[in-house]
Amino acid sequence: MMKHVFLTGSPVVGTDMAVKYASYSLYIVLVTVNGFYTEEVRERGRRVGFDVVTVTGDRGRLSRVSSESAAGRPEYRVGQYAVDLQSFESLVLPLFRDTREGSRRVFVIDEIGKMELFSQAFIRAVRQTLDASSCSIVGTIPVPKGKPLALVEEVSGRQDVKIYTITKENRDSLCDDIVSALQECLK
């Protein structure tokens, strides 16, 4: 039986907007929605990093363009971005605590990507939430390129996961299908 919905697609195709649309649509019909999104941070028109934003609006640093480690902490890097693992974990990990209680709950994970996967605690929390009986996930995973990400492969191979591939051509028409699929997951 399908329980979770994940979206994938090329960068800038609209997977994050589809997840936000689905989350908001479920919230309107009295489903408890929790979780997080990642958003670009821009300065003078140039992308300088990414923030993590909870569905309630709390914001924390995920990464910034940097050639040095932040505050002397060990540096985790993806391309030109230094990942602030401490900031990410302090904002995101507490959100997972609410996934084990109650009914009609949806947990948003935007996204399971290279930056987020530096956190072993995040990986464990995602696995626990996938197995939780009272919670469905709507999330995003990257399009496979190069060496596969273990957790992304694990999620993709689960029998209780439906994956939608978002393109510029189908992104508007798929949003209602995604919401319907999530509503079925919650029955």
TrEMBL record:
Task: Give GO MF terms, alphabetically.
Answer: ATP binding; ribonucleoside triphosphate phosphatase activity
Keyword match DNA repair: no
Check the record and name the SUPFAM superfamilies matching this protein. P-loop containing nucleoside triphosphate hydrolases
The record's section on InterPro entries has: Nuc-triphosphatase_THEP1, P-loop_NTPase
What UniProt keywords apply to this chain's record, in alphabetical order? ATP-binding, Hydrolase, Nucleotide-binding
UniProt keyword annotation of Nuclease present = no
Specify the superkingdom: Eukaryota
Under Gene3D superfamilies, the record lists:
P-loop containing nucleotide triphosphate hydrolases
Q: Which PANTHER family match?
A: CANCER-RELATED NUCLEOSIDE-TRIPHOSPHATASE
- Its recorded name reads Cancer-related nucleoside-triphosphatase
Q: Which organism is it from?
A: Triplophysa tibetana
Q: What is the lineage of its organism?
A: Eukaryota, Metazoa, Chordata, Craniata, Vertebrata
